[in-house]
Amino acid sequence: MTKRLFPMKKIFISFALTVGLVAGVTTTVAAEEGGFQAAGNNIRDQASLQRGAKLFFNYCVGCHSLKYVRYSRMAEDLGLSEDEVMKNLNFTGAKFGDPVISHMPEDSGQQFFGKAPPDLSLEVRAKEQGPDWVFSYLNSFYVDPTRPVGWNNTVFPNASMPFPLWELQGIQTAVKKEGSDDVEKLELSQPGKLTPAQYQQAARDLTNFLEYASEPAALQRQRYGIWVLLFLAGFTFLAYLLKKEYWKDVH
Q1: Neighbours of 200 (CB within 10 A)
Q2: Which pTM was predicted?
């Protein structure tokens, strides 16, 4: 009976590794085939979340809310004090326990952009490609004089959104395919305050923060998950010892 356990164990491990590898390859291929850049973000990276929060509150909250995220919960999850949040991230005079609401009234957004800017609390979860979509979107703005706001985007064409991070990235221009209006590639025609590598990291940090905002409980779930797996491993070992004890006299 004991001899039969080892082949089954090897089969199980091989199956688990295969599933993991296939899932990883499938995700990467899907992102590449769909024209999306892999975000490569990690919501367990607290420093990245803090940088992403800084970017959001300095460049995005003027138009976009996070109505399902409270300042107090954000402070706890990101390792920030109440004083740090209220001084550096709260620009609307909201209370510490209030949700993150934009400066812009909905009717003003309708007037300026033709449509009120959406709440971004669930933006990452709403996209099939998740953080890859958001990261690619932040990297795909280009100047377009034909658009009312002066900008366009290859991921979300004709979006009614100006590019808030243009000072950081710089200005990209579109190179069209010969004899077509389709965009072949984007070129950085005017550098920004950040180098391309630095801007990539900034876009990744902002994407990371928005993924966190879409499900703050994910941080606790992942921490608890480790202990659950350890418990299951310990329980499985004890169950195996008990099984051996029950069946030791059976031949």
Answers
A1: 17
A2: 0.75
